[in-house]
Amino acid sequence: MTFGEWQQMSPGTAAREVRRRAAAHLTAAQRSAAMAVLLDEAALAAGFESAPPGGPLRGVPFLLKDLFDVAGMPTFAGSSFLPEVRPAPALDSQIVRDLRAAGAVLAGKTHLFEFAWGLTGENAHYGDCEHPRFPGRTSGGSSSGSAAAVAADIVPFAIGTDTGGSIRVPAAFCGLYGYRGVPHAPWISDAVPLAPDFDTVGWFTSSSQDMRSALAALVGPRAGGQVPRGCYLDMPGLDPDVAAACAAAAANLAPPADAAARGELLLRFAPAAEVYGVLAGTQTWKIHKKWADRNRGRYGPLVRDRLDRAREISLAQVAAVEPSHAAIRLVWAEFFRTHDFLVMAASPFPAVTKADCTQANRLRMLGLTAPASLGGWPVLTIPVALASGMSTGLQIVVNDPQSPVLPWALGRAPQSSA
After folding, report:
1. CB-count exposure of residue 256 (10 Å: 0-12, 13-18, 19+)
2. Which of 27, 297, 318, 354 has its CA 20 to 30 A from that of 21?
């Protein structure tokens, strides 16, 4: 159901429908894996009833990744212990306050990859979050529950975060539209951090029109007076069917990058996964070092292993990747002097099974997503259907959250998700 269809419902009907869809569209195990909190019918009805009548998102239910505070609810961030080492939330996060002011209705909170430190839907504490239409395959992460809830049509809108691809990958896997904002924005400042220089807020919708509505209400893209200039960068390492589908879909947006631009971008982007791993890992260790040893046994094994590696990152390793980081930022700056947007694949493969949630495949995903993260750019992800019935996506990287490229690209995208 679209934003508009939800907005036509009475408060009581909308409240019942959210609960009905959660029960009907996810198995009990997947509700546990995806949903941290789902408000009861009375609380939901009160939320719909009290939504400001003139708000642009009036009556649109949303789910919130459990990195953000809601007064009276614990924030676990996908962990087993965070409320024990962090003060209880006394206030709603800024993103929640702004969404409520726009008329959106909080329906609950979603689970995620523990502490948002992964690109798959795995979670040792609450269960692995699967693709709603392809059981046994991951939803992608770390914004796993938010993506799964929108893909399962429980709500039309869900908030996530993206540090190294945590909106872009699940959007691609689940056939959704995704938006990633920029680091150090007010909305991310009061979230549980992963790597503060790269953390961003964003969201998922299942239709291009709903994404346009969300962007108009929350970001306010500028109107464009002419066709924007962009190009498609065919990144290496894509599965053949993904490469073909992304190239075909990108042709509706922009021509392939010319040889000079392609060569320079590929050269500078090549070390992006390694650079991101060192810089983000260092920042994440700074966040967790006050808890890590005392709570070592309460981390899931994947995050515990990443923490062990992160604590060993040396100043020499950081210094060694800084020139590559500077070169990546410079090549982006040079690119945006002559172009308005860059199109890239958002995932090298469709949603994978748990057996394929490997470190090698994590690096393949980061090879696509880390360049924009290291540049600090906003990104729109649009779904790309594959012949198998599964999906991937395209990243549309722009240099300003209010870029007119965003509504322009959505106008050329399919109206509903893959």
Report:
1. middle
2. 354
- Residue 207 backbone phi and psi in degrees, to 5: -130, 155
- Indicate which residue of 142, 143, 324, 403 is catalytic: 142
Q: Is 91 left (phi over 0), alpha (psi -120 to 50) or beta?
A: beta
CB atoms within 10 A of CB 295: 17
Catalytic residue, candidates 93, 139, 166, 417: 166
Per-residue pLDDT, 224: 82
CATH of domain 3-218: 3.90.1300.10
Handedness of CA 273, 277, 280, 284 (dihedral sign): positive
- Please say if the pLDDT value at position 417 is more than 60: no
Measured over the CA atoms of residue 312, residue 314, residue 320 and residue 323, the dihedral's sign is positive
Percent of residues, the chain, with pLDDT higher than 70:
99
**Whole-number pLDDT of residue 413:** 78
Res 225: pLDDT: 81
- Angle among Cα 179, 184, 189 to the nearest 5 degrees reads 95
Which tens digits make up the pLDDT trace of 35-93? Answer: 999 999 999 999 999 999 999 999 999 999 999 999 999 999 999 999 999 999 999 99
At 333, list the tokens. 């700056």
Angle between helices 359-375 and 272-288 in degrees, nearest 10? 90
93 is an active site residue: no
What is the reported pLDDT for 418? 52
> Catalytic: which of 65, 109, 146, 391?
65
Does residue 10 have an active-site annotation?
Answer: no
What are the residue ranges spanned by the domains of the chain? 3-218
Q: For residue 47, which of 22, 23, 15, 19 has the smallest C-alpha distance?
A: 15
Residue type, 250: A
Q: What is the DSSP letter of 112?
A: -
Give me the pLDDT at residue 205, please. 98
DSSP collapsed to 3 states, 224-261: CCCCCCEEECCCCCCCHHHHHHHHHHHCCCCCECCHHH
Residues 6+ apart with CB under 8 A from 265: 233, 257, 331, 335, 342
pLDDT digits over 260-312, tens only? 999 999 999 999 999 999 999 999 999 999 999 999 999 999 999 999 999 99
Whether 65 is catalytic: yes
d(CA 52, CA 69): 21
